[in-house]
Recover the amino acids of this structure.
Protein backbone atom coordinates (compact mmCIF):
# COMPACT_ATOMS: atom_id res chain seq x y z
CA UNK A 1 0.00 0.00 0.00
CA UNK A 2 2.74 2.45 1.03
CA UNK A 3 4.60 1.62 -2.10
CA UNK A 4 1.65 2.09 -4.43
CA UNK A 5 0.84 5.44 -2.90
CA UNK A 6 4.38 6.64 -3.50
CA UNK A 7 4.09 5.48 -7.07
CA UNK A 8 0.94 7.50 -7.64
CA UNK A 9 2.43 10.64 -6.20
CA UNK A 10 5.53 10.34 -8.32
CA UNK A 11 3.42 9.78 -11.42
CA UNK A 12 1.48 12.87 -10.59
CA UNK A 13 4.42 15.14 -9.91
CA UNK A 14 6.04 13.89 -13.10
CA UNK A 15 2.98 14.44 -15.25
CA UNK A 16 2.10 17.85 -13.92
CA UNK A 17 5.53 18.91 -15.10
CA UNK A 18 5.05 17.55 -18.60
CA UNK A 19 3.71 19.78 -21.33
CA UNK A 20 1.04 17.19 -22.09
CA UNK A 21 0.16 14.97 -24.99
CA UNK A 22 2.57 16.68 -27.35
CA UNK A 23 5.49 16.26 -25.01
CA UNK A 24 4.57 12.64 -24.30
CA UNK A 25 4.49 11.92 -28.01
CA UNK A 26 7.80 13.67 -28.47
CA UNK A 27 9.49 11.40 -25.95
CA UNK A 28 9.70 8.62 -28.48
CA UNK A 29 10.53 5.01 -27.81
CA UNK A 30 14.20 5.51 -27.13
CA UNK A 31 13.76 8.17 -24.49
CA UNK A 32 15.10 7.30 -21.07
CA UNK A 33 13.54 8.51 -17.86
CA UNK A 34 16.39 10.99 -17.42
CA UNK A 35 15.75 12.47 -20.86
CA UNK A 36 12.03 12.57 -20.19
CA UNK A 37 12.54 14.49 -16.99
CA UNK A 38 14.99 16.87 -18.66
CA UNK A 39 12.53 17.61 -21.45
CA UNK A 40 9.76 18.31 -18.99
CA UNK A 41 11.72 20.89 -17.01
CA UNK A 42 10.24 24.36 -17.31
CA UNK A 43 7.26 23.15 -19.33
CA UNK A 44 3.80 24.56 -18.55
CA UNK A 45 1.93 22.73 -15.82
CA UNK A 46 -1.21 22.06 -17.89
CA UNK A 47 -1.56 19.32 -20.50
CA UNK A 48 -2.13 20.87 -23.91
CA UNK A 49 -5.74 21.78 -24.54
CA UNK A 50 -6.98 21.94 -20.95
CA UNK A 51 -6.87 24.41 -18.07
CA UNK A 52 -5.49 23.34 -14.67
CA UNK A 53 -7.67 23.49 -11.58
CA UNK A 54 -4.93 25.58 -9.94
CA UNK A 55 -5.38 28.28 -12.60
CA UNK A 56 -9.16 28.17 -12.16
CA UNK A 57 -8.95 28.45 -8.37
CA UNK A 58 -6.45 31.32 -8.54
CA UNK A 59 -9.19 33.50 -10.08
CA UNK A 60 -11.73 32.68 -7.33
CA UNK A 61 -12.22 34.09 -3.81
CA UNK A 62 -10.86 32.08 -0.86
CA UNK A 63 -14.47 31.63 0.35
CA UNK A 64 -15.15 29.29 -2.57
CA UNK A 65 -15.80 25.76 -1.24
CA UNK A 66 -14.73 22.96 -3.59
CA UNK A 67 -16.46 19.60 -3.62
CA UNK A 68 -14.47 17.78 -6.28
CA UNK A 69 -11.33 18.13 -8.41
CA UNK A 70 -12.31 15.74 -11.20
CA UNK A 71 -14.63 17.20 -12.38
CA UNK A 72 -14.10 20.53 -10.62
CA UNK A 73 -17.08 21.86 -8.67
CA UNK A 74 -17.24 24.76 -6.19
CA UNK A 75 -19.42 27.58 -4.88
CA UNK A 76 -19.79 30.16 -2.10
CA UNK A 77 -22.56 30.08 0.56
CA UNK A 78 -25.46 32.58 0.72
CA UNK A 79 -23.78 35.22 2.90
CA UNK A 80 -20.95 35.47 0.35
CA UNK A 81 -23.54 36.52 -2.27
CA UNK A 82 -24.46 39.81 -0.55
CA UNK A 83 -23.90 41.87 -3.72
CA UNK A 84 -26.27 43.32 -6.31
CA UNK A 85 -25.15 40.56 -8.67
CA UNK A 86 -22.60 37.76 -8.29
CA UNK A 87 -19.04 38.97 -8.93
CA UNK A 88 -17.09 36.80 -11.38
CA UNK A 89 -14.73 35.51 -8.69
CA UNK A 90 -17.75 34.11 -6.80
CA UNK A 91 -19.67 32.51 -9.69
CA UNK A 92 -20.06 28.79 -8.96
CA UNK A 93 -18.12 26.14 -10.89
CA UNK A 94 -19.71 22.94 -12.09
CA UNK A 95 -18.04 20.91 -14.84
CA UNK A 96 -19.13 17.53 -16.12
CA UNK A 97 -15.80 16.92 -17.84
CA UNK A 98 -12.50 18.85 -18.09
CA UNK A 99 -11.99 22.57 -18.80
CA UNK A 100 -10.90 23.14 -22.41
CA UNK A 101 -8.46 25.94 -23.28
CA UNK A 102 -10.03 27.30 -26.48
CA UNK A 103 -8.75 29.98 -28.87
CA UNK A 104 -11.31 32.75 -29.42
CA UNK A 105 -9.88 33.45 -32.88
CA UNK A 106 -10.21 29.85 -34.04
CA UNK A 107 -13.52 29.13 -32.32
CA UNK A 108 -16.59 28.69 -34.53
CA UNK A 109 -20.27 28.32 -33.74
CA UNK A 110 -22.29 26.23 -36.19
CA UNK A 111 -26.08 26.25 -36.34
CA UNK A 112 -27.54 23.25 -38.15
CA UNK A 113 -30.41 20.78 -38.21
CA UNK A 114 -33.97 21.87 -39.02
CA UNK A 115 -33.00 25.27 -40.43
CA UNK A 116 -33.37 26.79 -43.87
CA UNK A 117 -29.66 27.45 -44.09
CA UNK A 118 -26.79 26.20 -41.97
CA UNK A 119 -24.74 29.03 -40.48
CA UNK A 120 -21.24 29.24 -39.04
CA UNK A 121 -19.91 32.24 -37.11
CA UNK A 122 -16.63 33.25 -35.62
CA UNK A 123 -17.03 35.03 -32.27
CA UNK A 124 -16.25 38.39 -33.96
CA UNK A 125 -18.86 37.73 -36.68
CA UNK A 126 -21.48 36.86 -34.09
CA UNK A 127 -20.74 40.08 -32.20
CA UNK A 128 -21.24 42.15 -35.37
CA UNK A 129 -24.21 40.35 -36.90
CA UNK A 130 -26.81 40.77 -34.13
CA UNK A 131 -27.88 43.32 -31.50
CA UNK A 132 -25.74 42.96 -28.37
CA UNK A 133 -27.59 42.76 -25.05
CA UNK A 134 -26.49 42.70 -21.41
CA UNK A 135 -28.69 41.33 -18.65
CA UNK A 136 -28.44 39.78 -15.23
CA UNK A 137 -29.66 36.19 -15.11
CA UNK A 138 -29.80 33.24 -12.72
CA UNK A 139 -27.55 30.32 -13.36
CA UNK A 140 -28.34 27.49 -10.96
CA UNK A 141 -27.23 23.87 -10.94
CA UNK A 142 -30.17 21.46 -10.89
CA UNK A 143 -28.67 19.98 -7.71
CA UNK A 144 -28.15 23.33 -5.88
CA UNK A 145 -28.68 22.88 -2.14
CA UNK A 146 -28.62 19.09 -2.52
CA UNK A 147 -27.21 18.38 0.98
CA UNK A 148 -30.49 19.63 2.47
CA UNK A 149 -32.18 16.43 1.27
CA UNK A 150 -32.59 13.53 3.70
CA UNK A 151 -31.70 10.84 2.94
CA UNK A 152 -28.71 12.11 1.05
CA UNK A 153 -29.08 12.04 -2.72
CA UNK A 154 -26.34 11.10 -5.18
CA UNK A 155 -24.35 13.93 -6.82
CA UNK A 156 -22.26 17.02 -6.07
CA UNK A 157 -22.80 17.78 -2.35
CA UNK A 158 -23.68 21.44 -2.74
CA UNK A 159 -24.10 23.17 0.62
CA UNK A 160 -27.46 24.45 1.84
CA UNK A 161 -27.27 27.47 -0.48
CA UNK A 162 -24.48 26.28 -2.81
CA UNK A 163 -24.55 25.90 -6.58
CA UNK A 164 -26.15 29.10 -7.86
CA UNK A 165 -25.11 32.57 -9.07
CA UNK A 166 -26.57 35.65 -10.74
CA UNK A 167 -23.96 37.50 -12.80
CA UNK A 168 -24.53 39.97 -15.67
CA UNK A 169 -24.24 38.32 -19.09
CA UNK A 170 -23.37 39.93 -22.43
CA UNK A 171 -24.16 38.32 -25.75
CA UNK A 172 -26.73 38.06 -28.54
CA UNK A 173 -30.21 36.62 -28.33
CA UNK A 174 -30.48 33.01 -29.42
CA UNK A 175 -33.79 33.86 -31.12
CA UNK A 176 -32.05 36.38 -33.42
CA UNK A 177 -29.51 33.77 -34.50
CA UNK A 178 -32.24 31.15 -35.05
CA UNK A 179 -34.22 33.67 -37.13
CA UNK A 180 -31.19 34.34 -39.32
CA UNK A 181 -30.96 30.62 -40.11
CA UNK A 182 -34.72 30.23 -40.57
CA UNK A 183 -36.58 27.53 -38.62
CA UNK A 184 -38.31 24.64 -40.39
CA UNK A 185 -41.97 24.05 -39.52
CA UNK A 186 -41.18 21.01 -37.33
CA UNK A 187 -38.38 22.70 -35.33
CA UNK A 188 -39.12 21.92 -31.66
CA UNK A 189 -35.88 21.75 -29.66
CA UNK A 190 -32.42 23.32 -29.79
CA UNK A 191 -29.49 21.19 -28.62
CA UNK A 192 -26.27 22.84 -27.47
CA UNK A 193 -22.94 21.04 -27.64
CA UNK A 194 -19.74 22.28 -26.02
CA UNK A 195 -16.07 21.49 -26.46
CA UNK A 196 -15.32 20.06 -23.02
CA UNK A 197 -13.23 16.89 -23.28
CA UNK A 198 -13.75 13.72 -21.26
CA UNK A 199 -11.07 11.54 -19.70
CA UNK A 200 -11.55 8.69 -22.19
CA UNK A 201 -12.17 8.56 -25.92
CA UNK A 202 -15.51 6.87 -25.22
CA UNK A 203 -16.75 9.79 -23.05
CA UNK A 204 -20.23 10.88 -24.14
CA UNK A 205 -20.33 14.55 -25.18
CA UNK A 206 -22.37 16.80 -22.88
CA UNK A 207 -25.41 17.64 -25.03
CA UNK A 208 -28.62 19.14 -23.65
CA UNK A 209 -31.59 20.49 -25.59
CA UNK A 210 -34.13 23.15 -24.66
CA UNK A 211 -37.65 23.45 -26.11
CA UNK A 212 -38.27 26.15 -28.71
CA UNK A 213 -40.31 28.28 -26.26
CA UNK A 214 -37.19 28.74 -24.09
CA UNK A 215 -34.88 29.05 -27.12
CA UNK A 216 -37.03 31.90 -28.49
CA UNK A 217 -37.33 33.66 -25.10
CA UNK A 218 -35.71 37.09 -25.45
CA UNK A 219 -33.70 36.40 -22.26
CA UNK A 220 -31.94 33.34 -23.70
CA UNK A 221 -28.49 34.36 -24.92
CA UNK A 222 -25.39 33.15 -26.67
CA UNK A 223 -22.98 34.92 -24.32
CA UNK A 224 -19.29 35.86 -24.43
CA UNK A 225 -19.25 38.27 -21.49
CA UNK A 226 -19.65 38.02 -17.71
CA UNK A 227 -19.89 41.16 -15.53
CA UNK A 228 -18.47 43.32 -18.36
CA UNK A 229 -15.40 41.11 -18.78
CA UNK A 230 -14.79 38.09 -20.99
CA UNK A 231 -16.20 34.73 -19.91
CA UNK A 232 -13.56 33.01 -17.75
CA UNK A 233 -12.37 29.74 -19.29
CA UNK A 234 -14.07 27.63 -16.65
CA UNK A 235 -17.36 29.40 -17.34
CA UNK A 236 -17.42 28.62 -21.05
CA UNK A 237 -14.91 30.86 -22.87
CA UNK A 238 -15.30 31.92 -25.58
CA UNK A 239 -19.06 31.22 -26.04
CA UNK A 240 -21.84 29.68 -23.98
CA UNK A 241 -25.58 29.44 -23.90
CA UNK A 242 -27.39 31.23 -21.07
CA UNK A 243 -30.92 29.91 -20.42
CA UNK A 244 -31.51 31.97 -17.25
CA UNK A 245 -33.77 30.57 -14.56
CA UNK A 246 -33.47 27.04 -15.90
CA UNK A 247 -31.22 24.30 -14.57
CA UNK A 248 -27.61 25.23 -15.30
CA UNK A 249 -27.01 22.27 -17.62
CA UNK A 250 -29.30 23.97 -20.17
CA UNK A 251 -26.67 26.72 -20.46
CA UNK A 252 -24.07 24.82 -22.53
CA UNK A 253 -20.50 26.02 -21.97
CA UNK A 254 -17.77 26.17 -24.66
CA UNK A 255 -20.62 26.17 -27.17
CA UNK A 256 -19.60 25.14 -30.69
CA UNK A 257 -22.72 23.54 -32.20
CA UNK A 258 -26.43 24.27 -32.02
CA UNK A 259 -28.65 21.65 -33.62
CA UNK A 260 -32.34 22.30 -34.24
CA UNK A 261 -34.36 19.11 -33.67
CA UNK A 262 -37.99 18.01 -33.95
CA UNK A 263 -37.93 16.44 -30.45
CA UNK A 264 -35.84 16.53 -27.28
CA UNK A 265 -32.27 15.34 -27.83
CA UNK A 266 -31.84 11.70 -26.80
CA UNK A 267 -28.59 11.22 -24.91
CA UNK A 268 -27.37 10.30 -21.48
CA UNK A 269 -27.37 13.89 -20.21
CA UNK A 270 -31.06 14.14 -21.17
CA UNK A 271 -32.39 10.72 -20.22
CA UNK A 272 -30.06 9.50 -17.45
CA UNK A 273 -29.30 12.75 -15.62
CA UNK A 274 -31.23 15.96 -14.97
CA UNK A 275 -34.49 14.05 -14.59
CA UNK A 276 -37.00 13.87 -11.72
CA UNK A 277 -39.80 11.36 -11.06
CA UNK A 278 -43.08 12.36 -12.68
CA UNK A 279 -44.83 11.54 -9.37
CA UNK A 280 -43.09 11.85 -5.99
CA UNK A 281 -41.42 8.66 -4.74
CA UNK A 282 -40.74 7.48 -1.22
CA UNK A 283 -37.46 9.04 -0.03
CA UNK A 284 -34.59 6.65 -0.72
CA UNK A 285 -36.23 4.89 -3.65
CA UNK A 286 -34.60 4.55 -7.06
CA UNK A 287 -35.69 6.52 -10.12
CA UNK A 288 -39.08 5.25 -11.33
CA UNK A 289 -39.73 4.62 -15.05
CA UNK A 290 -41.89 7.74 -15.43
CA UNK A 291 -39.62 10.79 -15.35
CA UNK A 292 -39.60 14.37 -16.60
CA UNK A 293 -36.62 16.46 -17.72
CA UNK A 294 -35.63 19.27 -15.36
CA UNK A 295 -36.31 22.74 -16.77
CA UNK A 296 -37.27 25.95 -14.89
CA UNK A 297 -36.37 26.41 -11.22
CA UNK A 298 -39.35 26.83 -8.87
CA UNK A 299 -39.65 29.86 -6.57
CA UNK A 300 -36.67 30.20 -4.22
CA UNK A 301 -34.97 32.68 -1.88
CA UNK A 302 -31.99 33.00 0.44
CA UNK A 303 -30.80 35.36 3.15
CA UNK A 304 -27.46 37.00 2.30
CA UNK A 305 -27.20 39.14 5.45
CA UNK A 306 -26.74 38.71 8.34
CA UNK A 307 -24.37 35.79 8.02
CA UNK A 308 -24.98 32.58 10.00
CA UNK A 309 -23.76 32.84 13.62
CA UNK A 310 -23.08 36.55 13.29
CA UNK A 311 -22.99 38.33 16.68
CA UNK A 312 -25.24 41.43 16.76
CA UNK A 313 -25.55 44.12 19.40
CA UNK A 314 -29.00 44.03 21.00
CA UNK A 315 -31.68 46.72 20.62
CA UNK A 316 -30.23 47.94 17.31
CA UNK A 317 -32.16 47.51 14.09
CA UNK A 318 -31.19 44.45 12.09
CA UNK A 319 -31.52 44.66 8.33
CA UNK A 320 -32.37 41.22 6.96
CA UNK A 321 -31.38 41.18 3.29
CA UNK A 322 -31.51 38.51 0.62
CA UNK A 323 -32.40 37.40 -2.90
CA UNK A 324 -35.49 35.83 -4.42
CA UNK A 325 -35.94 34.35 -7.89
CA UNK A 326 -38.03 32.02 -10.01
CA UNK A 327 -37.32 30.35 -13.37
CA UNK A 328 -40.77 30.94 -14.84
CA UNK A 329 -43.13 33.85 -14.12
CA UNK A 330 -42.14 36.43 -11.50
CA UNK A 331 -41.42 36.71 -7.80
CA UNK A 332 -44.66 37.88 -6.15
CA UNK A 333 -43.60 38.53 -2.55
CA UNK A 334 -41.13 37.60 0.14
CA UNK A 335 -42.03 37.14 3.81
CA UNK A 336 -39.70 36.95 6.78
CA UNK A 337 -40.33 35.19 10.08
CA UNK A 338 -38.49 36.01 13.31
CA UNK A 339 -40.25 33.29 15.34
CA UNK A 340 -39.53 30.05 13.48
CA UNK A 341 -42.47 30.49 11.13
CA UNK A 342 -45.26 31.28 13.62
CA UNK A 343 -45.77 34.76 12.15
CA UNK A 344 -44.59 36.32 8.89
CA UNK A 345 -43.75 39.90 7.88
CA UNK A 346 -43.73 41.13 4.32
CA UNK A 347 -40.28 42.20 3.08
CA UNK A 348 -39.64 45.12 0.73
CA UNK A 349 -38.88 43.69 -2.73
CA UNK A 350 -36.77 45.46 -5.32
CA UNK A 351 -38.67 46.03 -8.60
CA UNK A 352 -38.24 43.53 -11.42
CA UNK A 353 -35.62 44.48 -13.98
CA UNK A 354 -34.22 41.55 -15.91
CA UNK A 355 -36.84 38.82 -15.92
CA UNK A 356 -34.76 35.90 -14.69
CA UNK A 357 -32.40 37.81 -12.40
CA UNK A 358 -32.68 37.49 -8.65
CA UNK A 359 -34.30 40.42 -6.83
CA UNK A 360 -33.05 41.86 -3.55
CA UNK A 361 -35.42 41.92 -0.59
CA UNK A 362 -35.00 43.71 2.75
CA UNK A 363 -36.82 43.62 6.07
CA UNK A 364 -35.92 45.55 9.23
CA UNK A 365 -36.24 44.03 12.66
CA UNK A 366 -35.57 45.30 16.17
CA UNK A 367 -34.80 42.39 18.49
CA UNK A 368 -37.05 42.13 21.53
CA UNK A 369 -34.61 40.08 23.62
CA UNK A 370 -31.05 38.83 23.86
CA UNK A 371 -29.98 35.35 22.84
CA UNK A 372 -30.24 33.23 19.73
CA UNK A 373 -32.47 34.60 17.01
CA UNK A 374 -33.46 33.05 13.68
CA UNK A 375 -34.62 34.52 10.39
CA UNK A 376 -36.63 32.55 7.85
CA UNK A 377 -37.24 33.79 4.29
CA UNK A 378 -40.14 32.47 2.21
CA UNK A 379 -40.86 33.65 -1.33
CA UNK A 380 -44.10 33.27 -3.30
CA UNK A 381 -44.32 33.62 -7.08
CA UNK A 382 -46.94 35.58 -9.02
CA UNK A 383 -48.95 32.37 -9.52
CA UNK A 384 -49.22 31.67 -5.81
CA UNK A 385 -46.56 28.96 -5.61
CA UNK A 386 -44.87 29.27 -2.22
CA UNK A 387 -41.52 27.87 -1.08
CA UNK A 388 -42.12 24.70 0.94
CA UNK A 389 -40.45 23.85 4.26
CA UNK A 390 -38.78 21.03 2.32
CA UNK A 391 -39.54 20.04 -1.29
CA UNK A 392 -40.37 16.50 -2.42
CA UNK A 393 -37.38 14.18 -2.21
CA UNK A 394 -36.09 12.90 -5.56
CA UNK A 395 -33.33 10.36 -6.27
CA UNK A 396 -30.85 12.79 -7.85
CA UNK A 397 -31.51 15.56 -5.32
CA UNK A 398 -32.65 18.27 -7.72
CA UNK A 399 -34.66 21.48 -7.21
CA UNK A 400 -34.10 22.08 -3.49
CA UNK A 401 -36.12 25.22 -2.76
CA UNK A 402 -36.92 24.78 0.92
CA UNK A 403 -37.16 27.82 3.18
CA UNK A 404 -33.74 29.25 4.10
CA UNK A 405 -33.04 29.77 7.79
CA UNK A 406 -30.23 31.80 9.36
CA UNK A 407 -29.45 31.96 13.10
CA UNK A 408 -27.56 34.82 14.84
CA UNK A 409 -26.66 35.76 18.43
CA UNK A 410 -28.00 39.00 19.93
CA UNK A 411 -25.80 40.21 22.79
CA UNK A 412 -25.93 43.24 25.12
CA UNK A 413 -24.30 46.32 23.56
CA UNK B 1 -4.77 13.86 -35.00
CA UNK B 2 -7.60 16.40 -35.04
CA UNK B 3 -7.74 19.18 -32.50
CA UNK B 4 -10.62 17.50 -30.72
CA UNK B 5 -8.71 14.22 -30.50
CA UNK B 6 -5.70 16.09 -29.22
CA UNK B 7 -7.78 17.70 -26.51
CA UNK B 8 -9.24 14.32 -25.54
CA UNK B 9 -5.80 12.80 -25.42
CA UNK B 10 -4.47 15.61 -23.28
CA UNK B 11 -7.50 15.29 -21.08
CA UNK B 12 -6.75 11.66 -20.39
CA UNK B 13 -3.23 12.58 -19.38
CA UNK B 14 -4.70 15.21 -17.08
CA UNK B 15 -7.14 12.73 -15.63
CA UNK B 16 -4.57 10.03 -15.05
CA UNK B 17 -2.03 12.42 -13.60
CA UNK B 18 -4.44 13.22 -10.82
CA UNK B 19 -4.93 9.56 -9.92
CA UNK B 20 -4.53 9.19 -6.21
CA UNK B 21 -3.60 12.83 -5.96
CA UNK B 22 -5.70 14.24 -3.17
CA UNK B 23 -5.58 13.36 0.49
CA UNK B 24 -9.34 12.86 0.39
CA UNK B 25 -8.89 10.23 -2.25
CA UNK B 26 -7.94 7.30 -0.06
CA UNK B 27 -8.81 3.85 -1.48
CA UNK B 28 -12.25 2.28 -1.22
CA UNK B 29 -12.99 -0.25 1.54
CA UNK B 30 -11.13 -3.41 0.55
CA UNK B 31 -13.49 -6.24 -0.35
CA UNK B 32 -14.53 -8.46 -3.25
CA UNK B 33 -14.63 -6.13 -6.28
CA UNK B 34 -12.90 -3.10 -4.71
CA UNK B 35 -9.91 -3.20 -7.08
CA UNK B 36 -12.05 -3.34 -10.20
CA UNK B 37 -14.29 -0.58 -8.87
CA UNK B 38 -11.30 1.65 -8.12
CA UNK B 39 -9.67 0.97 -11.49
CA UNK B 40 -12.79 1.82 -13.48
CA UNK B 41 -14.09 4.79 -11.49
CA UNK B 42 -10.71 6.50 -11.09
CA UNK B 43 -10.37 6.83 -14.86
CA UNK B 44 -12.74 9.81 -14.78
CA UNK B 45 -13.33 10.95 -11.18
CA UNK B 46 -12.04 10.85 -7.62
CA UNK B 47 -13.06 8.00 -5.32
CA UNK B 48 -14.56 10.50 -2.86
CA UNK B 49 -17.55 10.69 -5.24
CA UNK B 50 -18.25 7.08 -4.23
CA UNK B 51 -17.28 7.29 -0.59
CA UNK B 52 -19.59 10.18 0.20
CA UNK B 53 -22.54 8.47 -1.53
CA UNK B 54 -24.54 5.95 0.44
CA UNK B 55 -27.13 4.63 -1.99
CA UNK B 56 -29.62 1.81 -2.28
CA UNK B 57 -28.78 -1.06 -4.68
CA UNK B 58 -31.40 0.32 -7.10
CA UNK B 59 -29.82 3.76 -7.09
CA UNK B 60 -26.36 2.23 -7.62
CA UNK B 61 -27.77 0.33 -10.62
CA UNK B 62 -29.10 3.60 -12.08
CA UNK B 63 -25.82 5.30 -11.30
CA UNK B 64 -23.74 2.59 -13.02
CA UNK B 65 -25.98 2.55 -16.08
CA UNK B 66 -25.49 6.31 -16.23
CA UNK B 67 -21.71 6.01 -16.01
CA UNK B 68 -21.69 3.35 -18.73
CA UNK B 69 -23.73 5.67 -20.96
CA UNK B 70 -21.31 8.48 -20.21
CA UNK B 71 -18.49 6.36 -21.57
CA UNK B 72 -16.92 4.25 -18.80
CA UNK B 73 -15.02 1.45 -20.53
CA UNK B 74 -16.50 -1.56 -18.67
CA UNK B 75 -18.19 -4.76 -19.73
CA UNK B 76 -21.58 -5.91 -18.46
CA UNK B 77 -19.83 -8.50 -16.26
CA UNK B 78 -17.58 -5.83 -14.77
CA UNK B 79 -20.61 -3.62 -14.20
CA UNK B 80 -22.32 -6.45 -12.29
CA UNK B 81 -19.27 -6.99 -10.09
CA UNK B 82 -18.97 -3.27 -9.35
CA UNK B 83 -22.68 -3.08 -8.57
CA UNK B 84 -22.43 -6.01 -6.17
CA UNK B 85 -19.44 -4.41 -4.44
CA UNK B 86 -21.03 -0.94 -4.09
CA UNK B 87 -24.34 -2.39 -2.89
CA UNK B 88 -22.52 -4.16 -0.04
CA UNK B 89 -19.90 -1.58 0.95
CA UNK B 90 -21.63 1.74 0.22
CA UNK B 91 -25.23 0.97 1.10
CA UNK B 92 -27.52 3.51 2.70
CA UNK B 93 -29.43 0.97 4.77
CA UNK B 94 -26.76 -1.51 5.84
CA UNK B 95 -23.43 -0.78 7.52
CA UNK B 96 -20.42 -1.90 5.51
CA UNK B 97 -18.80 -5.21 6.53
CA UNK B 98 -15.23 -5.18 7.84
CA UNK B 99 -12.56 -4.83 5.14
CA UNK B 100 -11.46 -8.13 3.64
CA UNK B 101 -9.12 -9.17 0.81
CA UNK B 102 -10.41 -8.49 -2.69
CA UNK B 103 -10.93 -12.09 -3.74
CA UNK B 104 -12.40 -10.93 -7.05
CA UNK B 105 -9.39 -8.86 -8.13
CA UNK B 106 -8.67 -10.01 -11.66
CA UNK B 107 -6.25 -12.88 -11.40
CA UNK B 108 -7.03 -13.44 -7.73
CA UNK B 109 -3.88 -14.35 -5.85
CA UNK B 110 -1.79 -14.45 -9.01
CA UNK B 111 1.26 -12.32 -8.12
CA UNK B 112 1.51 -10.83 -11.61
CA UNK B 113 -2.13 -9.77 -11.57
CA UNK B 114 -1.59 -8.27 -8.13
CA UNK B 115 1.28 -6.26 -9.58
CA UNK B 116 -0.84 -5.10 -12.52
CA UNK B 117 -3.65 -4.09 -10.16
CA UNK B 118 -1.34 -2.29 -7.74
CA UNK B 119 0.05 -0.17 -10.56
CA UNK B 120 -3.36 0.50 -12.11
CA UNK B 121 -2.36 -1.27 -15.37
CA UNK B 122 -5.63 -3.22 -15.33
CA UNK B 123 -7.70 -0.03 -15.36
CA UNK B 124 -6.84 0.58 -19.01
CA UNK B 125 -5.55 -2.78 -20.31
CA UNK B 126 -6.76 -6.37 -20.35
CA UNK B 127 -5.22 -9.56 -21.70
CA UNK B 128 -7.34 -9.97 -24.81
CA UNK B 129 -9.54 -6.87 -25.25
CA UNK B 130 -9.01 -3.21 -25.90
CA UNK B 131 -10.19 -1.13 -22.94
CA UNK B 132 -8.67 2.34 -22.95
CA UNK B 133 -5.33 1.10 -24.23
CA UNK B 134 -4.35 -1.95 -26.33
CA UNK B 135 -4.72 -5.49 -24.98
CA UNK B 136 -1.55 -7.11 -23.64
CA UNK B 137 -1.78 -9.59 -26.53
CA UNK B 138 -1.78 -6.76 -29.07
CA UNK B 139 1.30 -5.31 -27.41
CA UNK B 140 3.04 -8.71 -27.47
CA UNK B 141 2.16 -9.17 -31.14
CA UNK B 142 3.56 -5.76 -32.02
CA UNK B 143 6.94 -6.67 -30.54
CA UNK B 144 6.99 -10.23 -31.92
CA UNK B 145 10.38 -11.16 -33.34
CA UNK B 146 12.05 -8.06 -31.88
CA UNK B 147 15.10 -9.15 -29.87
CA UNK B 148 15.29 -5.80 -28.13
CA UNK B 149 11.63 -6.02 -27.15
CA UNK B 150 11.98 -6.41 -23.35
CA UNK B 151 14.17 -3.32 -23.03
CA UNK B 152 12.11 -1.29 -25.48
CA UNK B 153 8.82 -2.15 -23.81
CA UNK B 154 10.26 -1.47 -20.35
CA UNK B 155 11.36 1.97 -21.52
CA UNK B 156 7.88 2.58 -22.91
CA UNK B 157 6.16 1.58 -19.66
CA UNK B 158 8.61 3.74 -17.73
CA UNK B 159 8.27 6.89 -19.86
CA UNK B 160 4.71 6.50 -21.11
CA UNK B 161 3.90 7.35 -24.68
CA UNK B 162 1.37 8.15 -27.28
CA UNK B 163 0.77 7.52 -30.94
CA UNK B 164 1.50 3.82 -31.31
CA UNK B 165 -2.08 2.85 -30.39
CA UNK B 166 -3.99 6.05 -31.09
CA UNK B 167 -4.41 9.46 -29.56
CA UNK B 168 -4.90 8.52 -25.92
CA UNK B 169 -1.55 8.79 -24.12
CA UNK B 170 -0.23 6.35 -21.53
CA UNK B 171 1.12 8.05 -18.42
CA UNK B 172 4.72 7.35 -17.36
CA UNK B 173 5.61 5.22 -14.33
CA UNK B 174 8.75 6.84 -12.97
CA UNK B 175 8.56 5.27 -9.48
CA UNK B 176 7.90 1.68 -10.53
CA UNK B 177 10.79 -0.37 -9.06
CA UNK B 178 13.13 -1.61 -11.80
CA UNK B 179 12.61 -5.30 -10.95
CA UNK B 180 8.83 -4.97 -11.14
CA UNK B 181 9.12 -3.06 -14.40
CA UNK B 182 11.19 -5.87 -15.92
CA UNK B 183 8.74 -8.50 -14.67
CA UNK B 184 5.77 -6.66 -16.15
CA UNK B 185 7.49 -6.12 -19.50
CA UNK B 186 8.54 -9.77 -19.73
CA UNK B 187 5.07 -10.98 -18.79
CA UNK B 188 3.32 -8.72 -21.31
CA UNK B 189 5.56 -10.04 -24.09
CA UNK B 190 4.51 -13.61 -23.24
CA UNK B 191 0.81 -12.87 -23.85
CA UNK B 192 0.30 -14.41 -27.28
Amino acid sequence: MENSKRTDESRRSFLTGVAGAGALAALGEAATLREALAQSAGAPAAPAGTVTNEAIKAAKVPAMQYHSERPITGSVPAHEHDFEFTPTDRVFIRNNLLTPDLDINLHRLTLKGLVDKELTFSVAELQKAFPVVSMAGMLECAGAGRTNYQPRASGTPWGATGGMSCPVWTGVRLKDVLAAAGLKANAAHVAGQGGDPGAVATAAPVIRSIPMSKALDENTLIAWGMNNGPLPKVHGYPLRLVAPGWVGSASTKWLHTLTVLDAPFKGTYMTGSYIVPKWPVKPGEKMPPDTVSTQAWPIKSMITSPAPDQVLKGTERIMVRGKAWVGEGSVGRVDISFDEGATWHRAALERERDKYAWRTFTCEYVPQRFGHLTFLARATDDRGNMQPIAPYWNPLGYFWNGIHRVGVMVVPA
Amino acid sequence: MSRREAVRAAALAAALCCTGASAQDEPLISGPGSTLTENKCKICHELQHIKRAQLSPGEWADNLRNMKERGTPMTDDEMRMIHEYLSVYYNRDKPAPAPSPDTLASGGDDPMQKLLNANACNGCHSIDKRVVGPSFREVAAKYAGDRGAPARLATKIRAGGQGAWGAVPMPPNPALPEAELQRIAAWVLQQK
